[in-house]
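Reminder: ligand-aware prediction takes two inputs, not one.
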Amino acid sequence: MRSAGRHFLQIPGPTNVPLPILAAIGQPTVDHRGPDFPSLTLNVLEGLGRIFQTSGDIVIYPASGTGAWEAALVNTLSAGDTVLMAETGHFSTLWRIMATRLGLKVEFLPGDWRRGADVGAIESRLAEDRSGTIKAVAIVHNETSTGAVSNVSAIRRALNTAGHPALLMVDTISSLGSIDYRHDEWQVDITVGGSQKGLMLPPGLSFNAISQKARRAAKNARLPRVFWDWEDMIAANAKGYFPYTPATNMLQGLKVALEMLQDEGLPAVFSRHDRAAEATRQCVRHWGLEIWCAEPAEYSSALTAVLVPENQSADALRSTILKQSGVSLGNGLGRLADRVFRVGHLGDFNDASLLGALAAIEAGLLASGMGIRAGGLSKAIAVLNTDGPLQAAAE
Ligand SMILES: Cc1ncc(COP(=O)(O)O)c(C=O)c1O
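Here is what comes back for the chain with pyridoxal-5'-phosphate:
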């Protein structure tokens, strides 16, 4: 049955795709071996460098983020190699399972899913590993299942302090283009990204940003790889082409997405996410509900996971909100199933979209008899009005 009015896609990705990007994707498909194609390839590779904050190599896969996870592992490691991972939530767990299925040995530092990676535990494990058994440290920057961010620069320092040569791999699938991230400055070896979150594109593209050290490691890495091979990509990309058919229309959309982010300016993009996140948290606190991330310094600016009261169903609440107001919220994943709902505040949105979503959540909470305190929006508005574009313009 038709529902009137705009549907609000407030999940933590895929995010709302702005019309100029949809229009670019909807352009006629071009010849990916034709004379005009290299200018598109070179343009998007250069623009991606600004987003990853790197002057190094980047490869673009016609795949979801899971593909770029696999690419990071198979290009740099050999069967039996040890990878140190930190249990931050559902996505770190899926990456661990993938690594194990590829024949790697994973040391999984335990976590309670309520905070980012434990830097102290990483540092002590690296310090113990004098023989250099650990070949890579793999971290999820923004854990999309919990709304907790790991401190990548501190993990880099931990590697340096321990004098450990392991590669540093970071998943930025839900932080890229939303939360400050610096591939070169933080000396990350492989950064994994995806199109469908901060970059405001549909799902379908994913990325590896690659350090020179990672490229050297790839020369000796023996896990089988064909589709994911960096060297084939980098060699073809140098001439503006791809080793196989790229997702041409998505690349046309990517060009526009990168221009839009450039036009807004990355610092402004990050602060827009920060204030939406703070407004959301103030609203949630007023309702009397608990923010799932237990460490304020690690709160995510891309999403907020909210715990529902004991004996209540987060999924039933989400379903009420969708039916009542046409707002889709993220579900609880893995062990958080039915316990939390996740509010995505990333990608293309403004104050009106945020306030609309929060109003719909409040209506749903009240309709579901969750015993919350009404009036959370006033707290969100107070944040937006003290830290907003109007104030910036007046200064
Ligand atoms: C942090 C993180 N890593 C990995 C993935 C997997 O990416 P995909 O579903 O695009 O394959 C996701 C998906 O949401 C994610 O949020």
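The chain has two domains: 8-14+265-394, 19-263. Residues 13, 64-66, 91, 140, 144, 171, 173-174, 194, 203 surround pyridoxal-5'-phosphate (CB under 6 Å). We will return to this case in the review session.
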